[in-house]
């Protein structure tokens, strides 16, 4: 099986030398999606708005790959161990993010 690394043209740019997604064995793997609006380059204010933006970005990337969110196998919203300044989702607010996708 071939591993393909994908960089988005429509979603937010990665914060570092990362692929937006990796495709292996017909499965799309994504991690580290950020809550930045690709049109403005800025994160919206508030945990809920940032979580909504993250999931819009995921849908955008899936769309670029000819996929959608109906067949997602696993999803997580975590920031355990990260200081607040590195993540708009503060400790204890993960449930807000999970509720956006549900």
The helix-strand sequence is EEEHH
Measured distance between first and last alpha carbons: 32 Å
**What profile does the largest beta sheet have?**
3 strands, antiparallel
Cα Rg: 14 Å
Indicate the mean pLDDT: 79
Principal-axis shape equals globular
Instruction: Give the low-pLDDT segments.
Output: 80-89
What's the helical proportion of residues?
25-40%
User: What structural category characterises the helix and strand content?
Assistant: alpha+beta
Spatial strand sequence of the major β-sheet: 1-2-3
* Topology, number of strands: 3
Total of DSSP H or I helical runs spanning 4+ residues: 2
Proportion of strand residues: 5-15%
Can you put this structure into words, describing what you see?
The chain has 102 residues and is α+β, with helices and mostly antiparallel strands. Helices cover 25% and strands 11% of the residues. It has helices at residues 47-64, 94-101, and strands at 3-6, 21-24, 27-29. It has a three-stranded antiparallel β-sheet with strand order 1-2-3, with no helix packed on it. Helix 1 (47-64) packs across helix 2 (94-101). The longest helix has 18 residues, at 47-64.
